[in-house]
Amino acid sequence: MHLTGPLPHVELTDTQWQLLAHLVSASLPDPGGSESAAEAVVAHGLDPDQVRADLPSLIWLKFVTRHHGQLVATDLGAAVHFRSLCESAEQRLSEIARLAEAHEAQNPPLARSVRRLAQGSLSFTEAMAGLRNST
Description:
The protein is mainly α and 135 residues long. It is built from 6 helices and 3 strands; from the N terminus they run αβααββααα.
């Protein structure tokens, strides 16, 4: 599948995100297929009933597909999953930079280094060297 255009922004439940994350790394047996398939889903730490409940919307969104008795993340599902991880990391970096800024008065060199490291304009090695040189 070739993805074109912007990725959709969707609101998924925590269990839908968990299922999608699992399927991005490995397929799962369709828990509606058989008792042994449901047991295999349990062995992966997922609730077969919850998986059955989450599947219709994930399939409708084209994030997941059924293939030969297996649940598989589609390219679109993987792209949405990884974009969500990226956005979460960007949010954490932003919060780290804001924390450093809030405490800049106590340790200006550390705050500057943390902010620049979070922005990507400074490597970890450069940040550490700069802090050693500022003391």
